[in-house]
């Protein structure tokens, strides 16, 4: 019975990893595209509200996971249940890191001072330099490009 457990682990990891790809594509082409009307709230300073219209995207991703959990209750589709768990784990990590560490919308026990977490925070803050739909850099979340390269990319876009 080791093979089914291995398949479940692979499904979990696939769900988790696929979310970074899906999140990047959604962020780049949908949030900064036709659904900018939802995402704009995330690029506006302050606002004083605990919730943003942008938070609706979390409900969309949660609905996907819930559907996969439901389908995965059938034993022949069990791997989908594990994939949904991977998507959910990504979502929880996103809330902790994005809303906690980066934006401080929820309490977080420390600040990123060095290493990869600092790189992630810097990349996300560079993304927020643009308050418009177009002209942003760094659309991924857990995969953070080099901030110096992003800085150069941002300035190059401004010169166009």
UniProtKB/TrEMBL annotation:
The keyword Lipoprotein does not apply. Keywords: Carotenoid biosynthesis, Membrane, Oxidoreductase, Transmembrane, Transmembrane helix. InterPro entries: BETA-OHASE-like, Fatty_acid_hydroxylase. It comes from the Bacteria. Residues 12-141 form the Fatty acid hydroxylase domain. GO terms for biological process: carotene metabolic process; xanthophyll biosynthetic process. The keyword Calcium does not apply. One of its GO terms (molecular function) is iron ion binding. The chain crosses the membrane at residues 6-26, 56-73, 79-97. Belongs to the sterol desaturase family. This is Beta-carotene hydroxylase.
